[in-house]
Specification:
- The complex is a heterodimer.
- Helix content of chain A is about 75%, strand content about 0%.
- Chain A has helices at about 15-40, 45-50, 55-90, 95-100, 105, 110-120, 125-130, 140-165, 170-175, 180-210, 215-220, 230-240, 245-275.
- In chain A, helix 3 (about 55-90) packs parallel to helix 8 (about 140-165), helix 6 crosses helix 8 and helix 12 packs antiparallel against helix 13.
- The longest helix of chain A is centred in the N-terminal third of the chain and has 34 residues, at about 55-90.
- Chain A is globular and about 65 Å long.
- Chain B has two domains: about 15-50; about 55-290, MetI-like (MetI-like fold), CATH 1.10.3720.
- The chains are: A mainly alpha, B mainly alpha.
Chain lengths: ~280, ~290
């Protein structure tokens, strides 16, 4: 597409449209977010460091990031598998399954939370079979990971799926004609092509899990030092009117989100270049 | 053309698919995983909601607190969705139809609320409008309540649903280019006529797609709303917060009954979204064949 510059563009409304975009963006997103940094800046450096490195806070980072990493890895594996099956194979009910993959996007997190908690609790549909074998899911860090797998599930599928659809099968034929078996073709030819998309999906799923609150608190048990996630700790501090503490931890979370967003943007640029 | 159109069985020279047993195995694993993580929770919501029968189910939905929660949720969505829809269309017009420096940075900023934890999204409004916040003392002096009241809930919801429609429309409008609008203008249409007669028909399914996702999130948001709501029964509780309260009071059947409303909303959302996606694909294919 030939992008002529602004001057050659006859379409009306650029200035008011861009002006309103920037105005609304500032009002709704940028100014409120900046409040967090101003509030944090009013803390002394020592107070900030003390607030964000207290043992209970450090434990919550470990729980949050550890579970998010585990969940994102599980989603990366099964996401590729699901995308592969949806693109390459035919089976009854495929369209329905394909639509259902987005359920975690559409189902409110609180509903997901109470449902997962009830399924995996002692008397739940799965809990009653798992607990006799010593596998406790509800009210343990394992439950946190389960909730994170649920909410992150669509990301990998939806980033890998279009890449697989666009893939030209001629390269697979070529690999096969050159004597590669199917597994070698997958490992050496297909996987490297899908890699940027897999990493993007992994990062999206991880970022979502790190910030997630609603679906986790019902199944987590929320024991300080053991199964307390960072977003919950922010709320706990707020309820104790410890605004400074809540803000300091929230700033750490926000900086992590920014870094993740940056990584995801770079990954997406990389995959676009890869596709061309 | 993508290889999709060619029948795999007709290509005998090279192996481009797996043996039948591998295929069946992979399908089985994928379906088992999806059944475990998607179907089972979905079935559990409805099964638990109806555990005590239809009468109890309907009675739970007719509770005054539940009805007021439903009303508040509808009000919130009715304010947030149109605001973000207007923004989405305006932003997409500026970003997709014009080129200017800093465009990709602007898109990143629009995406920002997606990557912020819902809890942080609520907290920032507490920091501005809360008692200890920037505007807190002034608001209190004038007896205006925003935090722990309906305006706070609406603001937090606008924040979390901010990118939905814009990020749907930007790529769609970019893919359609400017030729059709330019033709309309050359033929003497004014700006608004061009938008409503030319641009709008091309993006209407994209708008529906964005609106339905924005609405689902607006009605279902929990974390951000939970921070700013104050959980006052019958006045500042949305449906998800009502679910939480009922659940924490151990009225499980009632909690799941209310939750089933949101699960139904999710299913409707998925259905509309699938149709909109299909229609968008049709519009794009039609446009491509015309060219």
């Amino acid at each position: 597409m030939a992008w002529s510059g602004r001057k050659n563009n006859v379409l009306p409304g650029f200035t008011p449209a861009l002006g309103y975009t920037i105005f609304y963006l500032s009002l709704v997103v940028l100014i409120p977010l900046s409040a967090l940094f101003f509030k944090t800046a009013s803390l002394s450096w020592d107070a900030f460091v003390a607030a964000v490195t207290a043992p209970r806070v450090l434990a919550s980072y470990r729980v949050t990031f550890g579970s998010s990493l585990a969940a994102a890895l599980i989603n990366a594996f099964f996401g590729v598998l699901v995308a592969w099956v949806l693109v390459r194979y035919r089976f009854p009910g495929k369209k329905l399954i394909d639509a259902l993959v987005d359920l975690p996007f559409a189902l409110p997190t609180a509903v997901a939370g109470i449902t997962l908690a009830s399924i995996y609790s002692q008397n739940g549909w799965l809990g009653r079979y798992l607990e006799p074998h010593g596998i406790k899911v509800a009210f343990t860090p394992l439950g946190i990971a389960v909730a994170m797998v649920f909410i992150g599930l669509p990301f990998v599928v939806r980033t890998v799926q279009p890449v697989l659809e666009e893939l030209d099968q001629e390269i697979e034929e070529a690999a096969s004609c050159l004597g590669a078996n199917r597994w070698q073709t997958f490992r050496r030819v297909l996987l490297p092509t899908m890699l940027p998309a897999i990493l993007t999906g992994f990062a999206l799923s991880f970022a979502r899990a790190v910030g997630e609150y609603g679906s986790i608190i019902f199944i987590a048990g929320n024991m300080p030092m053991v199964s307390e996630i960072t977003p919950l700790l922010i709320i706990t501090k707020l309820e104790q009117y410890d605004y400074a503490g809540a803000t300091a931890i929230a700033t750490v979370m926000l900086v992590v989100s920014f870094v993740m967003l940056l990584c995801i943007n770079l990954l997406q640029k990389w995959s676009r270049r890869f596709a061309e | 053309m993508v290889g999709k159109g060619l029948n795999k069985k007709e290509r005998k020279g090279a192996t481009v698919t797996e043996p039948a047993w591998v295929r069946s195995l992979l399908i089985a694993i994928a379906l088992a995983f999806l059944a475990l993580f998607l179907l089972l929770p979905l079935a559990a919501v409805f099964s638990q909601a109806l555990e005590k029968g239809w009468e109890a189910y309907l009675a739970a939905l007719k509770e005054p607190d539940t009805i007021s929660a439903i009303r508040l949720t509808l009000i919130t969505a009715a304010v947030c969705v149109p605001l973000n829809l207007f923004f989405g269309i305006v932003a997409a017009w500026a970003i997709a139809k014009f080129s200017f420096p800093g465009k990709s940075f602007l898109i990143t900023l629009i995406d920002l609320p997606f990557s912020v934890s819902p809890v942080v999204s609520g907290l920032i409004y507490v920091l501005i409008f809360g008692l200890q916040g920037w505007l807190g003392p002034w608001l209190q002096a004038h007896d205006i309540k925003i935090i722990f009241a309906v305006p706070g809930i609406i603001l937090a919801t606008i924040f979390v649903t901010f990118p939905f429609i814009a990020r749907e429309l930007i790529p769609l409008m970019e893919s359609q280019g400017r030729e059709e609008e330019e033709a309309a203008l050359t033929l003497g249409a004014n700006g608004l006529q061009t938008f409503f007669r030319v641009t709008f028909p091309n993006i209407k399914w994209g708008i529906l797609y964005g609106v339905i996702l924005c609405n689902a999130r607006a009605m279902g948001e929990f974390g951000a709303v939970s921070v700013v709501s104050g959980h006052v029964r019958g006045s500042t509780n949305t449906i998800p917060l009502q679910v939480e309260i009922l659940y924490n009071e151990y009225s499980y059947a009632a909690a799941f009954a209310v939750a089933s409303l949101l699960a139904l909303l999710a299913l409707v959302t998925l259905a509309v979204k699938t149709v909109a996606e299909w229609k968008m694909q049709q519009t794009i294919t039609a446009a491509e064949t015309e060219r």
